[in-house]
Amino acid sequence: MSDLTPHLDISGMQTVSKATTYAVELKNIVKSFQTGDKVNEVLHNIDLQIPTGSISYVVGPSGCGKTTLISIIAGILTSDSGEVNVLGNPIHRMNQREKATFRRNNVGFIFQQFNLISTISIAENVAVPLLIKGVKHDEAIEKAVYWLERVGLGDRPFSLPQDFSGGQQQRVAIARALVNDPKLIICDEPTSALDGKTGQVVMELLKDVAKQDDRAVIIVTHDNRIYRYADNLIDMEDGRINSVSSDASAWAQEVSSLGIDDPPEAKEQEPLDET
Amino acid sequence: MLQIALKMLFGDRAKFLTLVIGLSFSVFLLVQQGSIFCGLMLRTAQNVFETGAPIWVIDPTASNFNDTVDMKTSEVARVRSLPGVLWAVPMTLQGGVAQSDKGETAAIQVIGVDDESLIGIPASLIEGKYEDLNQPGAVIISKARSERFGAPQVGDEFEINDNRVKVVGLIDSKKSFAPFPVLYTTMSRVQTLIPDKQRIVSFILVKEKPDVDRKALCRLIEVSTGLKAETLWEFVFSTMKFWAANTGIPINFGINFGMVLLIGTMISAQTLYAFMIENIKYFGTFKAIGITNRMLSKMVVLQSLTVGLIGYGIGIGIASLFGYFLPEGSPLAYYTPWQLLVIILFLVMGFCSLASLLSLNRVLRVDPAIVFRG
After folding, report:
1. What's the pTM value of the predicted model, to 2 decimals?
2. pLDDT of res. B209
3. What integer pLDDT is reported at residue A27 of this predicted model?
4. Contact A119 B285 (CB under 8 A)
């Protein structure tokens, strides 16, 4: 656990103290949704710590609360009770506006369906987080083009998203998530809309460009073909955390040995020539 | 982000065109219906416009050009004697029956003007000479509606109330709302054509001296003579009001206008709303990334107003072309005052703003967690 007293610093670049061991610390998180008269508790007293410099997977069957959990971590949903400290900031004490500012400055998102705006160029899509921060258009585009180059799409920055394959679009989404230099990357099923090979390529890229000592990457996934890239596996079931394992490669091996998965040798592939 | 908002709008060409076409068509219909209404109302005061006198003096119990009470001839001198009056001349409007040599008959309006100055005859003489009105039995005919008694030409003769008259000029005037052919002649000849009238001055046309305030002179005339005096536009509106109050025109056009406004603009507003809702996933993404509600509102309002302005521009363009290409002498009255365009601009912008506010309500309440729902 971090010994740093939580403080509300949403100014952006200074959010992570050197003393912070964990990017995410959850204490006793409870979350329920009301459907009509029925209240359905989807997270039950969750305690969790996610270290910086790691890629952590949140896995488990559908409906176990994975997406709710990352929504709370990202400051999108509010927990009913408990403490949510992210990058040293007590998210549970923030109002919606403060949370929006926090997300703008600290969180990058990668979505299952990419969520790229189809009517603007990929450079503009990547530039969106910067434009939202108020960076001038030209400057934002320049930085976006740099990130597109880093994900191997620098040759056609002003083409529309539909001119690219699914894997390439997810690479654009990765560039968009990183353009703002966030300290927390939240990925929701980043490979589930992609075929196995493309999924591996995307994960290689994500590992290469996103993983840093001061940054945490949290990935919600059902895709056991990509477990090998995880530093931690957070296994959920029925709104509870079953186990947290730092030996993800063993898990991947176990899954593979059960014949559930037959991951391709992604590391032997050239990650950036996927089309 | 505003640039992005516009690109989102323009980039989805199918939806954008649907929006613009819907709004343009609505605006076109609004301008067209409004222009026909204005054109019709202007026609009620067509004779007043064509006469062009800056001040109209009438009997205090009369109300407008088509509701006259004749005054004594001496009233002209009383008005003329007032300070600030440059000139004051009599004018009369009488009814009669014209009959051509072929036996065609029509009820007509006879307008008599001052014998010496001939002030009051429209300036749009296309054939003949004004001074020929001094010839015996001379009349000048307005071409509009003259076909009702054989469309007489210069040199033709016919009868008015059994008096022989001769056409010495043709005026190219627009059709007035009253469906009668109009003849111009001198006051003295009107007295011959329409005998047994003790009082014959329907209007006193007045021009103020330079540097004299027109409205102030009207008030002076009223106070000094007990007559009613109105400026040209006041008299035009009095005439319009008379027709509006005594016919179903405003109600019928009001209903038309309202239906077009309701159906056309509401459909466009609904399309605009649908456009916003279809983009809600993108707005959700922006919210997840951390956009402020203020910026989101600006984006939505900008998109709405941009579509509104483009639709408005195209709509009034088409309506203007419609008016421009109406054939000369068309029976369709068409006049587009700038005030109508301003009113429609506000209506369209109002409905677009309403649509944007409704969609904004949804957009601002969008749960950013929507982005995690595949």
Report:
1. 0.71
2. 93
3. 92
4. no
Chain A residues inside the 8 Å CB shell of B1: 128, 131-132
Q: What is the mean pLDDT of chain B?
A: 86
A14 belongs to a structural domain: no
pLDDT in tens, A214-228: 788 999 888 777 787
- CATH code of A200's domain: 3.40.50.300
Residues of B in contact with A177 (CB under 8 A): none
CB burial string A148-175: b at 16+ within 10 A, e below: bebbbbeeebeebbeebebbbbbbbbbb
Q: How many structural domains comprise chain A? A: 1
Tell me if chain A has a CB within 8 Å of the CB of B11: yes
A16 pLDDT exceeds 60? no
Measured between alpha carbons, how far is B54 from B58 in angstroms, rounded to an integer?
Answer: 13
Hunting for tokens 């421009």 — which residue is that?
B324
**Paired residues of A51 in beta bridges:** A22
| Sign of the torsion angle spanned by Cα atoms B279, B281, B287, B290 | negative
Cβ contacts of A243-246, under 8 Å, gap ≥ 24: A244/A48
State ipTM: 0.77
**Chain A: closest CA distance from residue B303 (Å):** 14
Q: Best mutation site among A131, A181, A222 for testing chain B: the one with the most B CBs within 10 Å?
A: A131
**Other C-beta atoms lying within 10 Å of the C-beta of residue A42:** 16
C-alpha–C-alpha distance, residues A20 and A3, integer Å? 7
Nearest-Cα residue of chain B relative to residue A107: B289
Query: For an interface test with B, which of A31, A77, A132 has the most B Cβ atoms less than 10 Å from its Cβ?
Result: A132
| Structural domain includes residue A15 | no
pLDDT tens digits along B208-248: 999 999 999 999 999 999 999 999 999 999 988 888 888 88
How far, in Å, CA of B90 to CA of B117, rounded?
A: 10
Structure tokens at B100: 């051509």
Pairing of strands B182-186, B105-113: parallel
B290 touches A at CB < 8 Å = yes
Distance of CA B221 to the CA centre of its chain: 28
Domain boundaries, chain B: 2-44+248-372, 72-226
CB-nearest partner of A103 from B7, B288, B374: B288
Asked if the structure places residue A1 within a domain, the reply is no
Interchain CB contact of B297 with A (< 8 Å): no
Q: At residue A262, what is the residue type?
A: D
The parent domain of residue A72 ranges over 22-273
Closest CA to B30 of B311, B370, B361, B371: B311
Helices marked H in B12-134: 13-44, 46-51, 74-80
- Give me A32's structure tokens: 């329920």
CA distance A92 to A89: 9
